[in-house]
């Protein structure tokens, strides 16, 4: 009886570890309201899962807020994204990039993506 319980626990633990490993390689949904109260969708990406190519330098902000004064620029080229958020009421589509954790609004430029970058 004791051997059966150990085997069951071991099987459950292995299945849980397998499930977590499978989920670890995919982007995770994030509660949009944790990023911004006006967010419709939000998603975090795993390492090297999503890359955004910017055709030109774009304003970079500390938060996904079109009314916030830009804190700098992200130059043209490919950057890795760590999360994406879509804001309601023409708030736009924003990616947070690995460059200092800044946010860039991409729906105002002709951007492209590589990887699974869907919001």
Task: Write up what this structure looks like.
This protein has one domain (28-115): Roll (SH3 type barrels), CATH 2.30.30. Strand 7 and strand 8 (103-105) form a beta hairpin. The model is unreliable at 7-27 (pLDDT under 50). The protein has helices spanning 2-24, 32-35; strands at residues 28-29, 39-44, 50-54, 58-60, 72-74, 77-87, 92-97, 103-105, 112-115. Strands 1, 2, 3, 6, 7, 8 and 9 form a seven-stranded antiparallel sheet that branches. The chain contains two helices and nine strands; from the N terminus they run αβαββββββββ. The chain has 119 residues and is an alpha+beta fold.
Give a quick set of tags describing it.
single chain; alpha+beta; SH3 type barrels; seven-stranded antiparallel sheet; 9 strands; globular
Shape: globular
With helices defined by DSSP (H or I, 4 residues minimum), what is the helix count? 2
Q: What is the level-2 CATH architecture name?
A: Roll
Average of the residue pLDDT scores: 78
> Which residue ranges are poorly predicted, with pLDDT under 50 across at least 5 consecutive positions?
7-27
Percent of residues in beta strands: 35-45%
Q: Secondary-structure element sequence?
A: HEHEEEEEEEE
Q: What Rg do the Cα atoms give? A: 19 Å
CATH superfamily: SH3 Domains
Q: Number of domains in the coordinates?
A: 1
The first-to-last residue Cα distance is: 49 Å
Structural class category: alpha+beta
Q: Please write the CATH class name.
A: Mainly Beta
The largest sheet is: 7 strands, antiparallel
Helix content: 10-25%
Q: Tally of extended strands?
A: 9
- Per CATH, what is the topology? SH3 type barrels
């Amino acid at each position: 009886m004791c051997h059966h319980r150990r085997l069951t626990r071991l099987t459950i633990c292995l299945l849980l570890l397998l499930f977590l490993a499978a989920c670890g390689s995919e982007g995770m949904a994030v509660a949009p309201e944790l990023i911004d109260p006006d967010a419709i969708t939000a998603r975090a990406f795993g390492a090297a899962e999503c890359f955004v190519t910017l055709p030109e330098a774009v304003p970079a902000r500390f938060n996904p807020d079109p009314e916030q004064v830009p804190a700098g620029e992200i130059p043209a080229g490919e950057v890795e994204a760590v999360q994406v958020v879509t804001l309601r009421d023409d708030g736009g589509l924003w990616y947070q990039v690995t460059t200092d954790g800044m946010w860039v609004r991409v729906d105002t430029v002709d951007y492209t993506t590589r990887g699974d970058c869907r919001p």
